[in-house]
Amino acid sequence: MSEMFLFSCIIVLGAFISAVSQIMLKKSAQKTYPSRLREYLNPLVIVAYALFFGCTLITMYGLKVVPLSLSPALEATGYIFVAVLSYIFLKEKLTIRQIIGMVLIAAGIAVSSLF
């Protein structure tokens, strides 16, 4: 396995962790809290922001090898992860337009990785 492929997977892992933290924040936002302070200082929100920080570090590590020009294409996988995780955990419906968008994102990533 090439070093470039490994570090590209690390960046995609960072995008996945970011998507997980976004789902956690959405779950937290759907709850009612007794005060504004409890709304922001609850375990779900704190862990989600810690994950955001962690995925930033993971992405920076991945960029040690992956060219910066390829990073936006790899980070775009986050849109796919968020849509799929929202469907699974938040029971949100995927429209045909969203599915076409995810296919186009995947195709764009494939094309950009070839050049």
Short précis:
Helix content is 77%, strand content 0%. The chain has 6 helices and no strands. The longest helix is centred in the first third of the chain and has 27 residues, at 3-29.
Task: Give an overview in words.
The protein is mainly alpha-helical and 115 residues long. The protein has one domain (3-114). 77% of the residues lie in helices and 0% in strands. It contains six helices and no strands. Helix 1 (3-29) runs antiparallel to helix 3 (43-62) and helix 1 crosses helix 5. The chain is flat and about 55 Å long. The chain starts with a helix and ends with a helix.
Give the helices and strands as they follow along the chain.
HHHHHH
- Helix content estimate: over 70%
Number of helices: 6
Uncertain residue ranges: none
Q: In what range is the share of β-strand residues?
A: under 5%
What spatial form do the alpha-carbon principal axes imply? flat
Distance between the termini: 19 Å
Biggest pleated sheet:
none
- What's the Cα radius of gyration? 16 Å
Question: How many beta-strand runs?
Answer: 0
- What's the pLDDT, averaged over the residues? 93
Number of domains: 1
**Helix/strand class:** mainly alpha
Oligomer: single chain
